[in-house]
């Protein structure tokens, strides 16, 4: 009975993942996000196929499906990192990808070390999940994008419950195929993550995923290429400047952050690296629109990183 229920939940999850994949590929998702999202969904589908009783070890497609499935934690990690604007160092990315590829090769083609490769693969994947949870939860309070703050809470928790939980379980008890109830719970959690991803990503906030005119460089300043958080801050700064905030002599970072209702710590940290002083210079009323004074030293405010 449990096996039959688990099979239907698995089929539903694969169908939901395919629909999500089609929507995202056809949508205007930012290029930096689209690649890891596609890899993540394809990897999850491969994992659902690979971990089912339908895939026996004598199947000729097992190694290929196993390779795609093994990389699902990597793509989930990379997607979350880029969504949260915490791009990992290229060396770390390459090392993680190489470690998973090498462990896959030994697990499938070098029988004497298959057990070691199994545990090594799980250890690497678990390390990626731990880093995802760390980045997601630790940066939540300072995130300027409201919708992403919600994702920062639920995505790490769901991924930790599903991916982290199943990785630890398999390292202790072995593959879940011998535990139908665990298989059902694992598949159900994957379905929840897929549905959550659909709600969070298909109701796309232009500031979060979709490419818009704001993602294109400003014609007057080709260096202006803003991330979602920077876009939110940029818009708040533009509104404040239009209302005459630049006319306030001795305007400090703390005062400006309070006016804009933005985290002071991130703005102060990045601004200190750009200015020799913690106060903004006074602006003359004659400066007019802030967009016309980008060449002035004070214009570095527009690229304040949070």
Description:
- Helix 7 (146-173) runs antiparallel to helix 8 (180-202).
- It contains eleven helices and no strands.
- With 306 residues, the protein is an all-alpha fold.
- The chain is elongated, with a radius of gyration of 24 Å.
- It has helices at residues 2-26, 31-50, 62-70, 72-83, 90-109, 114-138, 146-173, 180-202, 228-242, 253-260, 264-274.
Helix-strand blueprint:
Layout: H1 2-26, H2 31-50, H3 62-70, H4 72-83, H5 90-109, H6 114-138, H7 146-173, H8 180-202, H9 228-242, H10 253-260, H11 264-274
Helix pairs in contact: 1-2, 1-8, 2-3, 2-4, 3-5, 4-6, 5-6, 6-7, 7-8, 10-11
Strand content: under 5%
For the largest beta-sheet, the strand count, sense and barrel status come to: none
Element pattern in H and E: HHHHHHHHHHH
How many helices does DSSP assign?
Answer: 11
Contiguous uncertain segments of 5+ residues: 217-223, 268-306
Question: What number is the mean pLDDT?
Answer: 74
Helix content: 55-70%
Secondary structure tally: strands: 0
Radius of gyration: 24 Å
SS class: mainly alpha
Which shape, going by the Cα principal axes? elongated
What distance separates the N and C termini? 52 Å
